[in-house]
Amino acid sequence: MADHIYSTQVTQGSLRSCNASPQIIARFQFNPAKVTDKRAVTYTSVEAPGQILPFQQYVKGGDRSLTFPIEIAGKLAAAIKIAGKLTAEEPPIETGADGDVSPEIRKYQALLYPVNPSWKTAGISQAKLFASRREFKAPPVCLLCLGDRSLDCILTDLSIDETMFNASLRPISASLRLTVKEIVPYGGPDLSPAGASG
């Protein structure tokens, strides 16, 4: 019998912070079924008398965004953990009592708020962590890993649909939709006269 063209080993995708302490690592329990990759650039039309069509002059690059769904199933994760099906290389998602997926959802939410070492202690709202803080800090820069592809990015949009609940009304299943934007990994370009090449 010939080997199947698809490997039985599945690489687990993840979204992780690069500059938060403690580091935020959200491993995808189920890899996305679909990833939408979108980018646009800006051109301007340069017109002159007698031209059939205007000349298109490149002006600047635009955002590159990736949008994808993530599914989280706490009861399934708890069942797999109990059955001992996960290895040390494939840690389960974080769940609370009775398969509560709030600890896992909290990871994604923390990637949208300024870096804060207390992100794990947030309840339903990350905002309360900043009640006594007034300094400006950006949310963490992230690394999106999909197989052997990785992308320096920021999480710009997160939608969460809690789809099932336990007896304490805590979510045990959720559907997330994420949008990340690619960033230049080493900071912006040096636009000063000294940084210009001649």
Task: Describe this protein's structure.
The chain has helices spanning 74-83, 102-110, and strands at residues 14-17, 25-27, 36-46, 55-73, 142-146, 149-165, 171-182. It has a seven-stranded antiparallel beta sheet with strand order 2-1-5-6-7-4-3. The chain is 10% helix and 36% strand. A hairpin with a 2-residue loop joins β5 (142-146) and β6. The N and C termini lie far apart (63 Å). It is mostly beta strands and 198 residues long. It has one domain. It has two helices and seven strands; from the N terminus they run ββββααβββ.
Write the layout of secondary structure elements.
Blueprint: E1 14-17, E2 25-27, E3 36-46, E4 55-73, H1 74-83, H2 102-110, E5 142-146, E6 149-165, E7 171-182
Antiparallel strand pairs: 1-2, 1-5, 3-4, 4-7, 5-6, 6-7
Give the helix/strand class.
mainly beta
What strand line-up does the widest sheet have? 2-1-5-6-7-4-3
Sheet having the most strands:
7 strands, antiparallel
Overall, the morphology is elongated
> What is the helix content?
under 10%
End-to-end C-alpha gap: 63 Å
Radius of gyration over C-alpha positions, nearest whole angstrom: 22 Å
Beta-strand fraction estimate: 35-45%
Q: Strand tally, please?
A: 7
Overall number of domains: 1
Number of helices in the DSSP assignment: 2
Q: Overall pLDDT, averaged?
A: 81
- Regions with little confidence, pLDDT below 50 for 5+ residues: 1-8, 87-91
Topology as H/E string?
EEEEHHEEE
Summed up, what is this model?
The protein is mainly β. The protein has one domain (14-37, 65-182).
